[in-house]
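This week, work through this protein record:
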Amino acid sequence: MSNSSKQRHELSREFARALDEVATKGDETSMDALMTAYDQVERFFLPKVSGAESIELEIKRRVAEMKFYSAIDKAMPYETCLDLFRQIRLLGYTSLEKKGNLGIVFARHCLQNGRDEEASLLLRDLSLELHAALRDGESLVYREMLDQIASIVN
């Protein structure tokens, strides 16, 4: 492993630890304080990867995902979670698996908040994408996601 690879690997581990540290304080911390802490993590790590666009994007994605999961865990209002979900969608997904997991979590939140139609549309689109991916190749993860979607819808 080259020096720059080792440095990137160590930076990645530091970033994951920093996000974990914020997340573990989630139960006793207000949503505003959590958002601020996640923003601080992002501001700390982005300059360290300046110019490496794919890594910058991944940092932004991970922070956005953690904000979203924190909002869901704290049962924040639908509009708050929707805004965070939209931010994630704008940043894009690293994989269909990540997109599926986030979509399923948000669909459940929609259902809990009486947004059945939004949940249905989201799950329908996700299901179509997963079926298309399965036609291209077998994936146990995609099948499990489709089972989860079926259990939510039925």
